[in-house]
Amino acid sequence: MADRQTHKLPTEILETIIAHLVYDTQSLKACAATCFAWYNITAPHLHHTLTLHEPHTDPTRGGPNPLMALDKLGLLRLVKKVQFQRGISRSPWVVPDFFDPQSLCYFSALTNLQVLEIASLDFSKFASGTEMYFGRFTPTLRSVTLTHPSGPHQQLLDFLRLFQKLDDIKIVRYRPTTETRYATDAPRAPIQGSLRGRLTLSGFVEEGLLEDIIAAFGGARFVSMDLEDVLGVQFLLDACAETLQTLRVYPEGPHWSHDRATVSVLI
Fold first, then answer.
1. Could you tell me the residue ranges of all domains in the chain?
2. pTM over the 0.90 mark
3. What is the pLDDT of residues 5-43, one digit of tens each?
């Protein structure tokens, strides 16, 4: 009887085959059900992204808690990207009440999280800051996307400072509110060695906050910037003059002056 091992495809070939199916969920599920070897290679692709929705007030439509389900199967360690999607009501739902002790325990199991995306995050709801809720992601997080965030400058700044390995930042339509002091509002030493990836800003006109973010990380080394209706473009160009490789600027917002637009186009 021939050795059964001779009928197995090499791991490298299996990985190549499955890599071509990363955007085909149904095919990935079929591969995972083939055998144990195929499951081990497919599972990280199937559970790469975790999307969290606004908890529904109707328990008959709420469905199972995805964090609980993944935790029971030991799959939270495979998650590399978490998305908090915008609620149907358009009002912020990612608030301190959402993070009960059980949810925080699940978050601690996300030991390989690299990308965090949050829609409509209102920092003013976190009177004591965001560290106890998102600080668990500090060791591994590399990318943050905030869509329609709001709240005081200092709280947004301190949120970004939680992630000392942060390389990519995307902020879309930030709505600042009146500054209020809170428990963690204190000077901190600059972070060194991050902000080396991509910066994407849209509708960002808080030039002073932008300068504070760069200062908080001890400078910036972005290699790519995508900027739409942004104040402080010249400051960013100067800060990343030695590292910038790709620049896209859309000077179409009402906050642009003729001089700023001309400088950006020339560069």
1. 9-46, 48-266
2. no
3. 545 778 778 778 777 777 777 877 787 778 877 777 777
